[in-house]
Design brief:
The chain has helices at 85-99, 164-172, 177-184, 188-212, and strands at residues 61-65, 68-72, 79-81, 127-132, 138-142, 148-150. It is an alpha+beta fold and 213 residues long. It has three domains: 8-100, no CATH class; 101-152, no CATH class; 161-212. A three-stranded antiparallel β-sheet has the order 1-2-3, with no helix packed on it. A three-stranded antiparallel β-sheet has the order 4-5-6, with no helix packed on it.
Length: 213
């Protein structure tokens, strides 16, 4: 009776994360290296049969454990932090969704309305004027569902816009919220609103740049 071969558990142990949907960012990131973008051997070498080891397969070194690993290229010696491929894919999806072009703003905001994606600029017959807001912006009403909406800049409710630059500088330099409030005279609620406003402006700028690219 033949005894089945015993496979070491280390044969299947990986030193690099699994790819996610075919995406793997753990390779040499030096564009001048001959092994740039070449996926290295993801498995541990210890305990593997010699027949399963490819002599010309780029390996390099993986140092560390858990979520704190570093990959060092065996050709150029450049090191890079090992990334979680799943997290990279999730972040890509989040940014892609955020950067997708939004629908027209000058249309009925009701999702179930037939005029939802019919902008006022192209279909003025579908809307009528309905007074003005407290800030003086024109208010419009959809003739189909009678939903009201107003147009104007999204930053028209910004107060003390002169503090935006100071808040941005302090955030990038690691100042706590309390210190930002002391220097600018803003309460914590307004500081957080400034942060949200700056974040939206950065995202919009990045979306426009990526769209142009």
């Amino acid at each position: 009776m033949l005894t089945p071969a015993i496979i070491s558990p280390q044969d299947s142990q990986r030193r690099l994360p699994f790819p996610k949907h075919g995406i793997d960012v753990n390779f040499c990131r030096n564009p001048q290296c001959d092994l740039f973008a070449e996926p290295p051997d993801p498995f541990k070498k210890l305990g593997r049969p010699k027949g399963n080891t490819k002599p010309n397969y780029p390996r390099g070194k993986v140092i560390g454990s858990g979520d704190e690993k570093t990959f060092t290229c065996g050709a150029c010696g450049q090191s890079s932090i090992v990334k979680n491929n799943g997290a990279v894919v999730d972040e890509y999806r989040r940014l892609r969704k955020r950067f997708q072009q939004e629908g027209p703003r000058d249309c009925c905001p009701a999702d179930a309305c037939a005029n939802r994606n019919k902008p006022l600029s192209q279909h003025p017959e579908l809307y009528r004027k309905s007074g003005r807001t407290a800030k003086g912006a024109q208010r419009w009403k959809c003739k189909t569902c009678l939903t009201s909406f107003s147009l104007g800049s999204r930053i028209r409710r910004q107060h003390r816009s002169n503090a935006n630059r100071d808040v941005l500088w302090m955030i990038t330099n690691g100042l706590p919220i309390s210190k930002i409030g002391d220097f600018t005279g803003l309460c914590p609620r307004d500081v957080y609103r400034k942060i949200d406003f700056i974040y939206d402006r950065v995202i919009d700028h990045t979306a426009n740049r990526e769209g142009s690219f």
